[in-house]
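queue> pop job 88
queue> type: inverse folding (structure -> sequence)
queue> payload:
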């Protein structure tokens, strides 16, 4: 089958998207075991023409449609009707099956039944064992009764299930489909594309660029949403992309609500993955983090539109998956303003599912005529010089006002890098609040964002640690490391740090967390990372008000 990875491509990819398990984490039962045959049943999926699908998508590039990135091959595999099933000497069960979907950029599995005992474990991994995810348990099943696995880079995936002989009951599951991700992120270009998608144009501005610096805090609320759903009109299982933002509520209780657009609902029983901090480390850079994922969400409220103009097109999701320790403290619950007033702020989004971008309006006006009257803002973007636009995949992303509070969510529009004079339409928070339906809680925001009905018209944002963020917002900073390269791993850190206890997390180029420690920060302090092997590392320091990052090279 076709292999995509040159050494250069592999390095750039894994540095941003590969989530291999650390040595301390559980591994599949078969790894390192002698006497276990590796002759696994291989299931080859029907040929998928990536280019034909991309051409088909080009005919549906409306922002009022979610961006499709993958299609699913139905398989209906169970523990009893397929795969290699070994009954081991002690009576335990080892079941494995391999799936190949030639030319897939990434691959993941969809289970529509999953009921296994507490003692059992299910993993997925690449044939070379470089990518391993799991164990999956019943706790990972989403409210719609499905389990959607993590993404394996490439077109081959192995699933392994181990059930000990003393398990409390016999496990049952069914793999409904193998998702073939066909959007190509493997081109090595100066305008590096994100691993979960790619922007069509090159006029977009990374949130790491200088002009975005004042917006770093609200940008931490913006997420890329991967949606998996069974959509008969698209031929069955499909994968789709939208944008959204974690939002604060008046109780400030850190309920993980995500605000997006109703047209991102592909099916009522869809599943969700939320990609946090999915952004480049430097302006127009090549390194970023894309593996901070919460897997699972439920629809809480939606505008109830028959079409995007009949209502204000909002969607409120609630994350049900675990918020990982590697990113949880960086989450920002964005504030909002439902007063109806407009001012010039910014739009922050994931165009085409690409790295997080920022766009700056030159005008924000309430639409006063036609079907969209009073429900939407019309936004025109800065064009001389261009300061960003939106595109398909940006749907549901927030429009912030000058006070960095959300006032709208993206629904539709004509802007693009090829047509920067186009305008976009954002459903207004003012209308989302109660105007779509004054009596049904499932069609308005008020019961969820102001559950005690305080009547608040604005609300400031909040960091995960409970810090309320006002105006002006805190900035993110870089810092210096010396000597760099270092030979013995004893380094001096210098930067604009606050004197406080902070969290230091160090990642290797595979995106693996290799060191985590508490540090006391000052303008200058020392770190001992002598336990790390030679290589390139990225050092994150999370303070109470600021986040810092720099690159470290160890060369003994």
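queue> result:
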């Amino acid at each position: 089958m076709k292999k995509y990875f040159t050494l250069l491509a592999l390095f750039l990819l894994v540095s941003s998207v590969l989530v291999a398990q650390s040595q301390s984490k559980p591994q599949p039962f078969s790894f390192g075991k002698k006497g276990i045959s590796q002759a696994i049943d291989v299931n080859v999926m029907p040929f998928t023409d990536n280019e034909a699908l991309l051409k088909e998508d080009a005919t549906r590039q409306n922002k009022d449609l979610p961006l499709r990135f993958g299609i699913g091959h139905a398989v209906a595999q169970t523990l009893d009707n397929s795969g290699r099933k070994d009954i081991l000497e002690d009576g335990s069960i080892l079941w494995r099956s391999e799936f190949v979907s030639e030319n897939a950029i990434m691959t993941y599995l969809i289970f529509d039944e999953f009921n296994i005992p507490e003692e059992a474990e299910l993993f997925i991994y690449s044939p070379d064992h470089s990518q391993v995810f799991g164990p999956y348990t019943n706790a990972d099943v989403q409210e719609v009764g499905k389990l959607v696995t993590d993404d394996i880079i490439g077109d081959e995936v192995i699933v392994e299930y181990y059930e000990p002989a003393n398990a409390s009951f016999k496990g049952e599951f069914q793999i409904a489909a193998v998702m073939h991700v066909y959007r190509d992120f493997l081109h090595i270009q100066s305008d590096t594309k994100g691993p979960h998608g790619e922007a069509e144009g090159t006029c977009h501005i990374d949130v790491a660029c200088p002009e975005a610096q004042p917006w770093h805090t609200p940008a931490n609320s913006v997420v890329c949403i991967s949606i998996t759903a069974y959509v008969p009109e698209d031929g069955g299982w499909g994968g789709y992309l939208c944008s959204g933002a974690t939002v604060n509520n008046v109780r400030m209780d850190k309920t993980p609500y995500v605000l997006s657009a109703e047209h991102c609902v592909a099916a009522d029983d869809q599943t969700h993955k939320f990609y946090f901090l999915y952004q480049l480390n430097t302006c127009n850079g090549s390194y970023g983090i894309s593996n901070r994922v919460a897997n699972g969400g439920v629809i809480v409220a939606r505008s109830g539109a028959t079409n995007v103009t009949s209502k204000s097109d909002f969607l409120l999701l609630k994350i049900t998956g675990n918020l990982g320790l590697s990113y949880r403290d960086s989450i920002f619950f964005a504030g909002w303003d439902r007063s109806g007033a407009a001012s010039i702020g910014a739009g922050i989004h994931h165009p085409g599912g690409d790295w997080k971008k920022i766009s700056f309006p030159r005008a924000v006006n309430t639409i006063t005529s036609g079907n969209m009257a009073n429900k939407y803002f019309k936004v025109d973007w800065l064009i001389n010089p261009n300061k960003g636009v939106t595109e398909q995949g940006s749907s549901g992303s927030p429009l912030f006002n000058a006070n960095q509070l959300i006032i709208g969510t993206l629904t539709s529009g004509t802007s693009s890098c090829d047509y920067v004079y186009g305008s976009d339409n954002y459903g207004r928070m003012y209308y989302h609040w109660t105007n779509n339906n004054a009596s049904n809680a499932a069609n308005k925001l008020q019961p969820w964002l102001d559950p005690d009905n305080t009547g608040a018209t604005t609300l400031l944002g909040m960091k995960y640690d409970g810090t309320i963020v006002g105006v002006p917002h805190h900035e993110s900073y870089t810092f210096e490391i010396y000597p760099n390269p270092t030979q013995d791993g004893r380094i001096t850190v210098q930067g604009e740090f606050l004197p406080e206890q902070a969290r230091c997390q160090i990642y290797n180029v595979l995106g693996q967390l290799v060191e985590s420690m508490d540090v006391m920060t000052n303008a200058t302090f020392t770190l001992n990372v002598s336990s790390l092997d030679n290589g390139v590392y990225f050092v994150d320091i999370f303070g109470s008000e600021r986040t810092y990052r720099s690159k470290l090279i160890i060369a003994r």
